[in-house]
C-alpha cells in the first residue's frame, strides 16, 4: 500500500526549495491551489537560497476542503507539473500551521497583529476585496462589510480581518506589508484603499490611521501561473511519480511569473533569488497580464461554454475562438498600454498560445468563467473606454460582455449550453432581477450595463451597449459562432 505523505515521509530528492523553520513570518489568507503553487513555492526556494524565518501560517477563507487533508499530512503537499514534455512532482514544506478563517476569524486578526509576522499575502480572488463595481471603493452596503463595521463584531470579510488585524498591530508599531496576489489592476493601491476605507468607516483612532499610513506598505504585484482544480487522477499520478499518497496535490503548468514592487515595511524573503522580479513598472506588468492573459481567458471561457467546450484547451482548439481572441489581443488590448521596458509582447502572446493549448492542464472553462461580475471589471471597462473615447468600437470586448451575459443572465427564450449552470456567479440573482420584465435584448443589456454592475463611465457609452446587444442577439438567434464571425468581419 502507498504510504501517506507527511513531514517524516518526504520522498528523497523531491523537496522543492527548503523546508521552513518553525517560526512563521508570513500569514497567508486564501489557502487554495494558486497560493500553494505560487507564493509558497517561491518562498520555499527563497529560503533555500537565503534562509530566514519565513514559515507560513496559512488560512483558507471559508472551507476546510484543503486544510483538513493538509493537516492530516503535516501541512506538506506536492506540486504536480503537467507539461507536454512530461509530468513531474515535488513536495512543498513551508506551511507551519493552517486553519480556516471563517471558523476562527480572530486567529487571522491575531496573526496579523503578531509582531513576529511581517507580511500577509492574499489570494482572496477579486470578490474578496468587497468593492462596489460602480465606484471601485469598499462597498459599505455589502452585508458582510456592514456587519464587520459594527462595533465589537468579529470580522467575517477579508478586508475586515486585515483592517482589524492592523488596528491591533498598531499597539506594537511593527512595520508590516499587505501583499495582494490577486488579479487586480493597481493591486497595492486598491488594497490599501479598501483597508483604509474600512478603518475610517469603523472610526478607529488617528494613531491607528497614522500607523497604517506610515508603517504598513501595500506593494503591488503581478502573479501568474495557471492552476486548475485537483482531481483524483492527480493524486494517482503523484502516487506513481513519488510513491506516496498525497490527499491534496496541486496540479500546475510549468510557467510561473511574479513581478513585485520592492516595498516591504517589515522585510521579505529573498524571492528574487527564487526567480521573482522586482520592478517599478508594476502597473505595466499588471496590464500585460490582466488584459492579454486574463481578459482573453474570459473570452475563451465564455465562447467555450457557449459552444460546449469543457476545458480551455478544447475551447482554444476551435478556430473561431482563436480568431476572436487573437483579434481581441491585436485590436482591443495591445493598443491600450505601453508594455514594460524591454518586454517582448509578441513572445508573451506566443507563449500564451502554448499555455492555453496544453491538454494536460484540463482547466475548466466554467472555472475561468466563475465570478465574471467581478473579474470582468479588471478586464473590460478601462480597455473599452480607451477605444470608445477615441471613437473606435472594441468589438471583441463587446463580444466578451455579450457572451458573459448569454451564460449567466440569458435573455428570455434563450437557453445556453448546460455547462453554463456550473459557472459560479455571485451576482446571478441580482442580474436576474435587473433584467426581469425586459422587453427587447437592447433593454436587457441596458439594464445590466446601467444596473450597478459596471462603472458609470462605461454604462454611459450607449454605442457599446448597443453593440453588446447586437452580439447577444446574434448569439441567441444564430449561435456563438455567428456572433464571432460578425466581430471578425467588423475588424
Ligand atoms: C483566470 C486566472 O480564472 C481566471 O479568471 O484568468 O485564474 C488565470 O488562470 C491566472 O490568473 C493565471 O495566472
TrEMBL record:
Its EC number is 1.1.1.17. It catalyses: D-mannitol 1-phosphate + NAD(+) = beta-D-fructose 6-phosphate + NADH + H(+). Keywords: NAD, Oxidoreductase. One of its GO terms (molecular function) is mannitol-1-phosphate 5-dehydrogenase activity. It comes from the Bacteria. Residues 282-406 form the Mannitol dehydrogenase C-terminal domain. It is an enzyme of class 1 (oxidoreductase). Residues 25-272 form the Mannitol dehydrogenase N-terminal domain. GO terms for biological process: mannitol metabolic process. Belongs to the mannitol dehydrogenase family. This is Mannitol-1-phosphate 5-dehydrogenase. It comes from Saccharomonospora cyanea NA-134.
Amino acid at each position: 500500500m502507498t504510504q501517506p505523505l507527511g513531514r517524516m515521509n518526504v520522498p528523497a530528492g523531491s523537496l522543492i526549495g527548503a523546508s521552513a523553520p518553525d517560526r512563521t513570518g508570513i500569514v497567508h489568507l486564501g489557502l487554495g491551489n494558486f497560493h500553494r503553487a505560487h507564493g509558497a513555492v517561491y518562498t520555499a526556494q527563497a529560503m533555500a537560497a537565503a534562509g530566514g524565518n519565513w514559515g507560513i501560517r496559512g488560512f483558507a477563507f471559508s472551507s476546510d476542503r484543503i486544510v483538513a487533508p493538509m493537516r492530516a499530512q503535516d501541512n506538506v503537499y506536492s506540486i504536480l507539473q503537467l507539461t507536454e514534455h512530461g509530468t513531474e512532482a515535488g513536495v512543498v514544506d513551508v506551511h507551519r500551521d493552517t486553519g480556516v478563517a471563517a471558523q476562527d476569524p480572530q486567529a487571522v486578526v491575531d496573526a496579523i497583529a503578531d509582531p513576529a509576522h511581517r507580511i500577509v499575502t492574499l489570494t482572496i480572488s477579486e470578490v474578496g476585496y468587497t468593492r462596489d463595481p460602480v465606484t471601485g471603493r469598499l462597498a459599505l452596503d455589502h452585508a458582510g462589510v456592514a456587519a464587520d463595521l459594527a462595533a465589537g463584531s468579529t470580522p467575517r470579510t477579508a478586508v475586515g480581518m486585515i483592517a482589524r488585524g492592523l488596528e491591533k498591530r498598531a499597539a506594537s508599531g511593527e512595520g508590516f506589508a499587505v501583499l495582494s496576489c490577486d488579479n487586480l489592476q493597481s493591486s497595492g493601491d486598491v488594497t490599501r484603499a479598501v483597508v483604509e476605507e474600512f478603518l475610517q468607516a469603523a472610526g478607529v483612532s488617528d494613531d491607528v490611521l497614522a500607523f497604517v499610513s506610515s508603517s504598513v506598505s501595500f506593494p503591488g504585484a503581478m502573479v501568474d501561473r495557471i492552476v486548475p482544480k485537483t482531481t483524483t487522477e492527480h493524486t494517482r499520478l503523484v502516487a506513481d511519480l513519488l510513491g506516496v499518497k498525497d490527499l491534496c496535490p496541486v496540479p500546475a503548468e510549468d510557467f510561473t511569473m511574479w513581478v513585485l514592487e520592492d516595498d516591504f515595511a517589515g522585510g521579505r524573503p529573498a524571492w528574487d533569488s527564487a526567480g521573482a522580479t522586482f520592478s517599478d513598472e508594476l502597473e505595466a506588468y499588471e496590464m500585460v497580464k490582466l488584459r492579454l492573459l486574463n481578459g482573453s481567458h474570459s473570452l475563451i471561457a465564455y465562447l467555450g461554454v457557449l459552444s460546449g467546450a469543457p476545458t480551455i484547451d478544447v475551447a482554444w482548439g476551435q478556430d473561431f475562438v482563436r480568431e476572436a481572441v487573437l483579434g481581441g489581443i491585436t485590436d482591443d488590448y495591445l493598443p491600450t498600454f505601453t508594455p514594460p521596458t524591454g518586454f517582448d509582447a509578441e513572445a508573451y502572446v506566443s507563449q500564451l498560445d502554448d499555455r492555453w493549448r496544453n491538454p494536460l492542464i484540463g482547466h475548466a472553462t466554467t472555472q475561468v468563467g466563475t465570478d465574471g461580475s467581478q473579474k470582468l471589471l479588471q478586464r473590460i471597462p478601462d480597455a473599452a473606454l480607451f477605444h470608445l473615447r477615441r471613437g473606435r468600437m472594441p468589438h471583441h470586448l463587446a463580444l466578451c460582455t455579450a457572451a458573459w451575459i448569454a451564460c449567466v443572465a440569458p435573455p428570455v427564450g434563450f437557453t445556453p449550453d448546460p455547462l453554463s449552470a456550473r459557472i459560479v456567479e455571485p451576482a446571478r440573482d441580482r442580474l436576474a432581477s435587473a433584467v426581469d420584465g425586459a422587453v427587447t435584448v437592447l433593454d436587457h443589456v441596458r439594464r445590466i450595463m446601467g444596473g450597478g454592475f459596471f462603472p458609470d463611465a462605461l454604462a454611459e457609452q450607449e454605442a457599446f451597449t448597443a453593440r453588446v446587444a447586437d452580439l447577444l442577439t446574434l448569439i441567441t438567434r444564430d449561435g456563438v459562432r455567428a456572433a464571432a464571425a460578425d466581430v471578425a468581419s467588423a475588424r
